[in-house]
Amino acid sequence: MAYFNRRHRAWGIVREQTPHVTGSFAQGFANVDGTRRFVEQTCRVIQINRGASGVLQYPFSRAQRVEFTRGTAARELPTASSRPPVTSSAPPP
Predict the structure, then answer these.
(1) Of all residues in the chain, what percent are helix, strand and coil, respectively (each to 5)?
(2) Do 40 and 27 contact (CB within 8 A), yes or no?
(3) What is the pLDDT of residues 40-70, one digit of tens each?
(4) How many CB atoms are closer than 10 A to CB 81?
(5) pLDDT of 86
(6) pTM over 0.85
(7) Are 23 and 43 in contact (CB under 8 A)?
(8) What value, to the nearest 5°, has the Cα angle with vertex 68 and ends 65 and 73?
């Protein structure tokens, strides 16, 4: 999201939030309570990047201007959700 005031001397603010979702899937055989079973497990990781910045612009002409930008960023790491293993006594077809 951004806002720019272009009247007298241009200035603006920018705000962003970008989610990144990744995941993994694993399957195989494992000993569960002394019995060999087929196990499936999924894992999802959510990372959110947030940032804000300010922009100042001073136009000299329609073709030339000077810009100043200052901002900050933050990363929220990770929100992992893992589904408990699903077991069965036989492998999938």
Answers:
(1) 0, 75, 25
(2) yes
(3) 888 888 888 999 999 998 888 889 989 999 9
(4) 11
(5) 62
(6) no
(7) yes
(8) 145
